[in-house]
Amino acid sequence: MLELKALTKRFPVTGKHRKQTGQTSLTAVDGLSLQVSGGRIYGLLGANGAGKTTTLRMVATMLTPSEGTATVDGCDIITRADEVRRKTGLLFGGDVGLYDRLTAYENIQYFARLNDVPDEVSSARIHELAEQFRFTEHLQKAAGKLSKGTRQKVSFARAIIHDPQLMLFDEPTLGLDVTAKKEAEDFILHCRDKGKTIVLSDHTLSVVERLCDRIGILGKGKLLGEGTIDELTRQHECKSLEEVFFKLAEENAAL
Amino acid sequence: MRNAYFAVVLKKEILDMLRDRRALITNLVLPLVLYPVMFLFMGSAVNSLVTDAEQNTRLAVTAGTALYDVLSETEGLHIASAADPVAELDAGRADVALNVLSEGDGKYSAEIIFDDTKSASTMSAQYVISLLDAYNQSAVNEKLAEMGISIAQLSPVAITQKTLNAAAGREEASGAGIMLSMMLPMLVVIFLAVGGLATAGDLFAGEKERRTMEPLLCTRAGRGSILGAKFTAVTLYSLLSVVATFAGILLGNIINPDAMGMGIDTDALGDFTIPPLSLLLTVILIAVMAMVFSGLHVAVSTYSRTVKEAATYGTFFMLVAYIPVFSTMFMQAGDIKAWMMFVPMLNVVGAMKMVLGGVSDIPFFLGCIASSLVFLALVLALTRALFRKESVMLRTV
Ligand SMILES: Nc1ncnc2c1ncn2[C@@H]1O[C@H](COP(=O)(O)OP(=O)(O)OP(=O)(O)O)[C@@H](O)[C@H]1O
Ligand SMILES: [Mg+2]
What we know:
The complex is a heterodimer. By secondary structure, chain A is α/β, with parallel strands linked by helices.
């Protein structure tokens, strides 16, 4: 269970930009409140710069909120950050960072150790995840020698090696080919079926449509609309999620 | 718990570094190979020029002169008579030419011609001059003996030299050769300043650039353990490169003991012992300075977006560190001033020169260590602050 309570993040604006605009701060996330329960996938949909990544970073305790807070299974992200970290896995899509000189196995094991998973436990889990993602034969290869798709799979395994209750996926299928994309999506669904709480941020409508139970449309850090696809289309009298997205974006721009 | 994370990060960083062949070669293998080769070359270059002159000088002397007969008795000298010695030199068949202008009645007038663009020719000319000087000297002695005068009678002032320590009845300060006290502090500081640069760049800016920093910061290992372990890894690496430098120089000394003694009585090196306490304090000082510079490189690398940016800023600090080193290159142990203990890097140079010069000024060493610890505290505070700053840590976005 994840709950955001008026979560807000302001970044200081400095230098040239500050002189030009006179702004002293930029509100990347603006009073965001929402709830996601276990066994559900919540989709955060938003254009570039809408504040998706910033939201996930705050939940993952990498950034401190300027105002408001969030709780993961009742643990506050500010006051009980360590427990939140234990319960949370964050995965970024795109060009995945791994330690190129370490093997795939060592990469995952490193993060297991940093999350207090004993080696006996992690060893079994790494093989299990490798089996599931079909990269067992690559486990002992240096990460630098792996293909992009395999790297992404390794980083999936790395993000969830400590079996977190809350999984945050930031554009998880970015840059993957069709097969790899399908595998990644299947895996996310598999996690949902195991009762995990999942937040998926993306600006690809089709991914969000296929996977998410509920969708929150984000614009300039604010939640513009929320609900299932049915609810959203009905509420805004649109035929598709795409239409809802553009309609809300337009309304927001006019504000 | 914190210690457990610290150990995990440190272990991983060491493993990662050990697999970085390029860095290993430049930082560890290179000093171990380069210095011995350099020593071999340096020693043999100087030695060979001198022995070359004694063994290989090809001298062309005006044919049919008495001076030719005098010099032809010299062992090892390749002497040739020629109608025109200068032509021989010009043609490269001789290293030096002796053109006899006139001779008679046991008196000679001659000119030495050499090619000042060739060191072999210059050295040969000097060698021939020294041969002629020796001949002159023995001729003078002979004449004086004939006249019943001793050479001492002709020199009213007799001089002997003594060092202050000898005059005061103190034990002679026996130092390592000038070369060693010039080169060693310089090399140590260079490696102190540069040793952590690449590693720090890789471990901080590199991790940001490769996008592994964010997942790392999301783990349960707090920022303190991560920073601490990484800083330790950088320090270890830079110390290791200093050790490799020492080892390389030692190896060079074993291979060619004359290189560092150059011009100095190498036997004196045999008596040269470093007082254990001074040595210990100097080692501590070097270790603390390695930490200061590692910290500086870590701070720079934490601030930087990319490895390249970190390398650029880091190089700047490195060059600044070289200023005190090069400006004191020719100083000897006795020239070291007390205020130098407060200048980073200069204190290392000063302490090392003292140790190598056989001076053990314990308060100076302690002062150096104390001031270095203050710098260390400052650098670490700066690094810690940077590492906790969101705008710095996520500067890639
Ligand atoms: N560390 C930071 N310092 C300053 N401004 C930031 C920082 N991180 C993000 N921002 C700004 O906050 C806003 C939201 O950024 P964010 O990365 O959360 O958007 P996003 O929805 O993830 O976009 P994208 O689809 O491009 O990933 C942007 O305007 C961005 O420039
Ligand atoms: Mg983003």
